Each structure stands twice: as C-alpha cells, then as structure tokens.
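*** Query protein ***
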Amino acid sequence: MVWERRWHPLREEWVTVTSHRNSRPWSGSEISQVVTEQPAFDPDCYLCPGNTRVSGIANDSYKDVFVFDNDHPSFSLKAPTGLEASPGFYSSAPATGITRVVCYTPAHNLSLAELEESAIQNLFDCWARQTEELTSRPEIDHVFVFENKGEIIGVSNPHPHCQIYATSFVLKATETEVNAIRKYHEEHEKSLFREIINNELNDGRRVIVENEDALAFVPYFARFPYETYVVPKKTHQFIFELSGTERMALVQALKTVLVKFDNLWQMSFPYVLTLHQAPCDGAQYPQYHFHIQIHPPLRQPGLQKFLAGAELGGDTYLNDACPEETALELQAQPDVHYKEAG
C-alpha cells in the first residue's frame, strides 16, 4: 500500500501510508540488538527492593507491585499558584499534579511480556486502585498511566515500571479524543469508539487477539508501524469500572500482544504503552471508551521510526508500514514467549 491517506477519527487528522519506503536505503545508525543479561536483583538499581533511591528514601522490600511518589516529579501539588501575569497575549498556569512510579515486580530482569498473567492482573488491579483514588481528588482532572520501555525510548533504568501522571488539566491527546468522540456522537448519534471496534471486527485483517471481552488490533489509521490498540469490548470510562472478568480478558489480550512483539524479532520489543481514560474534571463523558495504546518506535529490526520533517515540522504522520501487513506479521507469531520456547 503506497501513497494512501487514512483518516484518524480519534485525532481528526490524516495519516499517510507509505509502506514502499520501509525498504529504502539507510546509511544512518542502527539500534544495537546486543542483549546484556540483567540480574534478578541489581544493588545499583534505584527501583529494586530495599535499595535507596536518589532522594535518599529506601524502597520497601516489596514482593509484588510497588508504588511510590516520583522523586523528580514533572508536576506537583506544590506548584506555585501566584504566578505573575505574562505580558501581552501570552498565558501561564501552574503545573499542578501528582506523579507516581509503579514497579511491576521485584525482578529486575523481567519485562511486562515475561510476567505471569496473575502478576499482570495484580498490576491492572493496582492501576485501577490508583486511578480510582486519584480521580476522586478534587484537584485532579485527568489520570494518565504510561510505560516507556527500552533504551531507544530514553529509559535509563530497565527495571520494569511505569509512571502515573495525575494532573490538574487534561493531557492534549485525551482532550483531542474527547472532542472527536463528542463531535461524532452529535453528528451521527453513534459511539465513535464502538464504530472503530465494529469496523475492525468486521474487517478482521488487523485483529491480533480476540476473546469474549477484549480485542487487540493494529488500527486502520495507525501512525506507527506495529502500533496496536488493546480494548475492552464494553464501554467504560476508567479501568476501575471493568469487571474482574473484563479485566482478566484485557490482561490476556495485552500479554499475547506483548509476547508476539518480542517473538517477531526475538528481542525485548521497545514501546510506549499508554492507558487512555476519560477526564475526571466534573464533566460527563459517557461515550469515552477506556483503552490501551502501544506505540513501538522500530520499523524494522534495528531501524527506528524517526519523527522528522513531515511529522515534527508538518505535524502529519507518515507510516512506513501498511497496517494490514504488520498485523499479518504479528498474527503469525506464536503466543508462547521465545525465551520460554527455548
């Protein structure tokens, strides 16, 4: 598929599919796939159990999921509120919020893809508890959970963990989705996300995993090669609203996707994983559909998908791979992690 534009309904923008460019000559640097075996416990790791973090605070000797307030927060409830008015037409506002770190497991050498389903379920339960607690706070308008995985993403600590940003404002991606979903419902009296799910199921070519209560697919409008959505089939605004059965279905779908990622190139696959939840700013968002987005940065083994002129300068995404083709690659991968398969 070449030179085709596809409409991204959640972002209300066009994505150009240029899959013929994925095989273009490349003389730049490549991402090394040399794997350094990590120990189960690293005495120099700030996130391992019992170790002292840079703040001087010692971690609990945790056996499961461990949560703590970020020692270097991007947002804080202590943000100054008495800001001087900016001159002219410029504006400023406090960067108020709560940021937390969630360690998935005490094992330094495991990734999310390698955890048992029960451990991932514990993590989902933690995400749900954290979201429910933070959304109940009047000073918080949005809770955003994300994992940055891999050195290519800029992660300096390989210990499996994610972050939670609970902010006094709504992050731009969610704000864009909310507006698109509201607009679509006003114009068509239909749920935009339900339309996406139904169309992916009816087409079927991009579906990676389906079970009774969850679905994983490479979206028709993917901006990145191997971009994948993992969604509950029923509409919920927040992760804590999912039933135990729905949560487990989502766990199984997510694990299968992550295992397939690793199996594709026999490596620990880097990505940015994000939980998209409705704002908690007092307004109602009945059409918003909680979901997980995964954005991998590689377009081929060792080759990064760079955001350059069109993306950063022109704010228009070029996908170097056809979503149907990348979905087919992932579908063909086994469900058992290559390390377990030997």
